[in-house]
Amino acid sequence: MKLNLSVSIGLISGKDEPDQWKDRALWLRVLKTCRIVVSTPDVLLNALRHGYVQLGCDVGLLVFDEAHHAAEKHAYNLIMREFYDQLPSRPESPTNVDEVMRPMILGLTASPIFGGDAEKSFRWVKSTFTIFRS
Question: Does the reported pTM lie above 0.70?
């Protein structure tokens, strides 16, 4: 992956010395030196809750892999409810890149159908993600 991108990439996961990511200085260094940060959802949620990462300032794009898990108490859903919803809406054509606003979102999934009920799944997705477009 790094060979195909011309920007610095940081990888953060709980299995790689999980206690090291409880240090604010380490988060600041990663955010300062890496253009792309790949993280597990739980590690990102903890960093947001501790104030090490500011969603409206430090993150311009959230990519959720396996986005169909973004329900109930999953970290994806908690990130959206606790942090994303609180931010000002993203204007259609942002003019000030330093303005605090909701990051863009890309949700990826190969499993959009929950429990075999396609109609129920699409109603849930529509009702859940419609609020994030504003």
Answer: yes
83 and 107 belong to one structural domain: yes
Are both 84 and 111 inside the same structural domain?
yes
> Which of 45, 52, 42 is closest to 22 using CA atoms?
52
Written as six digits, the tokens of 78 are: 């908690």
pLDDT in tens, 21-58: 677 888 888 899 999 998 889 989 999 999 999 998 99
Three-state DSSP class for residue 10: strand
| Three-class secondary structure of residue 48 per DSSP | helix
* Cα 71 from chain centre: 14
Q: Find tokens 């970290």 and name the residue.
A: 75
pLDDT tens-digit readout, 66-95:
888 888 899 999 999 999 999 998 888 777
Both structure tokens of 107: 């949700």
> What is the span of the domain harbouring residue 3?
1-38
